[in-house]
Each structure stands twice: as C-alpha cells, then as structure tokens.
What does this fold into?
Amino acid sequence: MPSRSLSPRARPAAASANIAPPAAPDYAALAAFRYALRGFTAFSEAQAHAAGLTPRQHQALLAIKGTPDPQPIGIGALARQLLIRPHSAVELVDRLVQLGLVERQEAPEDHRRAQLRLTAKAELLLRDLSAAHVQELNAIRPTLIDLLRRFAPPDAAPDP
It folds into this structure.
C-alpha cells in the first residue's frame, strides 16, 4: 500500500485553509490535469467492461495482486486500498469468488481473518488488463509529465 494516502479524506479542508489559492494560470493546468485523469479513468473503465468486469472488480484484482505486504491482503486492507467500507469489500470479494477470480483462505495466525489470492483465471485477465493500462499510460506520459511540471514550485530542482 502506498505510504501516503490519495484519499480525498487525507487532508481536511481546514488543513488547507492557509494555502494560498493558485494563480490564474494554474487553474488551466489543474483543469487540464483533471481532464487527463478523467480520460485515463474512462479508458480504464472501458477496458474493465470489455473484460467482463466492473471497474471496482478490476481495482480489487489489482489491489490483491499489487499488495506490497509479504502476506496476502485481507478484507480490511482491501477496503482501505479501495477507499470503501469493509462490508462493501466483503460483498465485492464474494462476487469475485463467485466469478472464479479470487480464493479466500483462512489466515494461519488468525482463523477469523481471510487472506485473498487471485486464481489463475484472474491472473491472466489482470495481465492483459495491466498491459493495456501500461500502454495507455506510456501514451499519455508526456502530457502527464508536462502537467505535473507546471505544478512544481519555482525553486524546485529540474527533473532528470
């Protein structure tokens, strides 16, 4: 899991009250950046649907496969990773199990906790989806880099 949260709840509005509003040219960069993110999200959703998944199911498979923890991810960690409530994660995992994409196993150290693993079917599906996503990210990479540079503070070191 990333070391810092990308959650909209990560920084309360009050914490950002002392931050100066962006200058007028920055509004255009923010709008362009949000547009690029929405474009990638739309691409990702279309790819998930074409593979017979909902976007959230695709995100769950990716979170299960991509956990940096040496132990398989559990329901609680999956819920946190997807920014959903634990009961919603349980329902999501139940559906993925029904689809033959995820296996739920008892954790050896705590039999109340479930560990989640992808099936071979899910591994193949995720491999193809991920390849398409990496290809799309490489296509939009120059745009994203250009936009991110526009947000760098004036005294920031140049990118390598």
Observations:
- The mean pLDDT is 88.
